[in-house]
Amino acid sequence: MKPEPATVVSLFSGCGGMDLGLSGGFRFLAKWYKPLPLDIVWANDINEFACRTYKHNLGKKIICGDIWNLMDTMPKYADVVVGGFPCQDISVNGKRAGIDGSRSGLYKAMVEAVKRLQPKIFVAENVKGLLMQNNKASLEKVISDFSSIGYEVDYRLYHAADFGVPQTRDRVFIVGTQPGVNFEPPRPILSKAEHITSEQAIADLEQMPEDESINHIWSKANRSPEQGSRCLKADRPGYTIRAECHGNIQFHYNQPRRISMREAARIQSFPDKFIFQSKLRETERQIGNAVPPVLSWHIGKAVIAALNN
């Protein structure tokens, strides 16, 4: 008899990149990522467009609204709590206000959720900027707040390209465990020489005309310092897909246009059947804010190993 899957509460779920990875059961660039025994039992985000995309693609209920107003609707317990708390105030491209900023201060909602649910393990994702010297006090405060409610807390920087994501994206994962639960961070599966390149990821789309039904649409913003002029390199993974580009997303490596939202989704490791339920600008925001599903899948495998041990 198969054991019951572990229950997961997901905060700041966005369009569902992290939750898709944790659930598994998807194909990306011809590779099958098997289903994982993790069951998302409660999810929340404040962005209604992201919630629409989440429902459409994950087939699960997500409660749309302010997390502080919805805290009491969470279940009484979950094995795992996950969330990428907002990072605009920590990001290198953001306001540099640290966790005292109005958005990044929402990590406190995750602390409160963990305190209430007492999961065996929690996973919080954030930008590389959290490790910068000017954010040292912010990182120490986050770790201290989680530690104060009884968790052993560790953090690690992951390079998405090392895990089969065609993107040079660096992200911090903070993992907290109950005493006796041992989380072994997943190890890279690819060397730098083996990284999936932009061309390998999106070459089949480059001649395709725009098609809104599969999100293959792109910004027409001019090429300039003000509107962005960065260009993909065919023989390297894509640059980090940002959420707040305002249509200034990077250019294609050999086409006279910016990359499409479908191409951006590929660079983020979303499967092609994952369709964003929004127009260009909002789709760009959802893709840029997401945790790459393939990276999340590897984190999910490590979470399951920790729970089983």
Short overview:
It is built from 9 helices and 9 strands. By secondary structure, the chain is α/β, with parallel strands linked by helices. The chain has a domain at 6-188 and 291-308: Vaccinia Virus protein VP39 (Rossmann fold), CATH 3.40.50.150.
Notes on the structure:
The model has no long low-confidence stretch (mean pLDDT 92). The strands form 2 sheets. The chain has a 7-stranded mixed β-sheet, with helices on both faces. Strands 2-3 form a two-stranded antiparallel ribbon. Strand 6, helix 4 (107-117) and strand 7 (121-127) form a beta-alpha-beta unit. The longest helix is centred in the C-terminal third of the chain and has 16 residues, at 293-308. It has a domain at 6-188 and 291-308: Vaccinia Virus protein VP39 (Rossmann fold, 3-Layer(aba) Sandwich), CATH 3.40.50.150. The protein has helices spanning 17-23, 48-58, 67-70, 107-117, 136-147, 198-202, 261-267, 280-289, 293-308, and strands spanning 6-11, 26-28, 31-33, 38-45, 63-64, 80-83, 121-127, 152-159, 170-177. The chain is built from 9 helices and 9 strands. The chain is globular, with a radius of gyration of 19 Å. Helix 1 packs across helix 9 (293-308). The protein is α/β, with parallel strands linked by helices and 309 residues long.
Question: Which helices and strands appear, and what pairs or packs with what?
Answer:
Elements: E1 6-11, H1 17-23, E2 26-28, E3 31-33, E4 38-45, H2 48-58, E5 63-64, H3 67-70, E6 80-83, H4 107-117, E7 121-127, H5 136-147, E8 152-159, E9 170-177, H6 198-202, H7 261-267, H8 280-289, H9 293-308
Parallel strand pairs: 1-4, 1-6, 4-5, 6-7
Antiparallel strand pairs: 2-3, 7-9, 8-9
Helix pairs in contact: 1-9
